[in-house]
Amino acid sequence: MKLLVNGEAHEVAATTLAELLAALDYEGDWLATAVNSDLVHRVNRAEFRLSDGDRIEILSPMQGG
Amino acid sequence: MFELLGTTLPSRLLLGTAQYPSPAILADAVKASGTAVVTISLRREMAGGRAGEKFWSLIGSLGVRILPNTAGCHSVKEAVTTAKMAREVFDTSWIKLEVIGNHDTLQPDVFGLVEAARILCEDGFAVFPYTTDDLVVAERLLEAGCKVLMPWCAPIGSALGPVNMTALRSMRGHLPGVPLIVDAGLGRPSHAATVMELGFDAVLLNTAVARAADPVGMARAFGKAVEAGREAFGSGMLEPREVAVPSTPIFGRAVFS
């Protein structure tokens, strides 16, 4: 399945958002995820099924003004 | 002490966390400023979670309250989704809402701002909208559910200080019961003192401290200026006058001729 993760194209075997995070070696409680511009809560990542062409954003705390 | 949305804060200075020369200097500047609230952003995590973790643990060690922002968002949808993501990560309903309308001036898109504010207020957020000094927009934001407003005094990062004192005075005068925090455009401690003397409740700044030659010293200076301005506001300042008035009593003056 082809996905766009943080603006970069990825070809992955993962079928859920949680599997995608694991496959790409993301970990930690300080990550926030959105699929196709909508928030996917942490607790829903395991059930959230991805579709070909989905746009995924994985964000974390950064310096800000 | 400063009462903000039911929270008692020891300082009327809110500080941004961006652009410091190093994490250690950021931490020292936060401590020197006396601030109890810092702004933080969310950005794409490219290091598997480790970059965010490092920064997050540094902030956690400072014992300050977090005001996440939606910096860089140019649409209502972007801002709303970013706010929701921030709420999940930072476990706070506070959000500094930015919807940018112009790339050059970083002026808020006030139409999108009001729309996003309404959506987020209905969803239970405590929205801190980064807005202009326009009074009608301020009233629309209050109607949308905002309980605090954050007008600019000049463009973000410009260090110009208050460029429209009349508008700031007017906003303060028309909205006496609303917490007003001047956000953006402050360059010097005297600018902060000036807006605090007008009766603004607090200031939020970042670049003026982070890009100073000595950010820790400047953070301390801003902390003092904010306190001084607030105390002056509450102490009844003299109105300027065109004539000299002797400060030493005339009565009892010696006569030598």
TrEMBL record, chain A:
Q: Which Pfam families match?
A: ThiS (PF02597)
Which InterPro entries does the UniProt record give?
Beta-grasp_dom_sf, Mopterin_synth/thiamin_S_b, Thi_S, ThiS/MoaD-like
Tell me which domain of life the UniProt entry assigns to the organism this sequence originates from. Bacteria
Task: Supply the PANTHER family for this chain.
Answer: SULFUR CARRIER PROTEIN THIS
Q: What protein am I looking at?
A: Sulfur carrier protein ThiS
Annotated source species:
Mesorhizobium neociceri
Q: Which gene encodes it?
A: thiS
From TrEMBL, chain B:
Pathway linked to the protein: Cofactor biosynthesis; thiamine diphosphate biosynthesis
> Which InterPro entries does the record associate with it?
Aldolase_TIM, Thiazole_synthase_ThiG, ThiG
List the active-site residues.
K96
Main subcellular location of this protein, as a coarse class: cytoplasm
Q: Name where it's found.
A: Cytoplasm
Q: Which CDD domains match?
A: ThiG
| Gene3D superfamilies linked | Aldolase class I
Where, in this chain's numbering, is 1-deoxy-D-xylulose 5-phosphate bound? G157, A184, G185, N206, T207
This chain's protein is named: Thiazole synthase
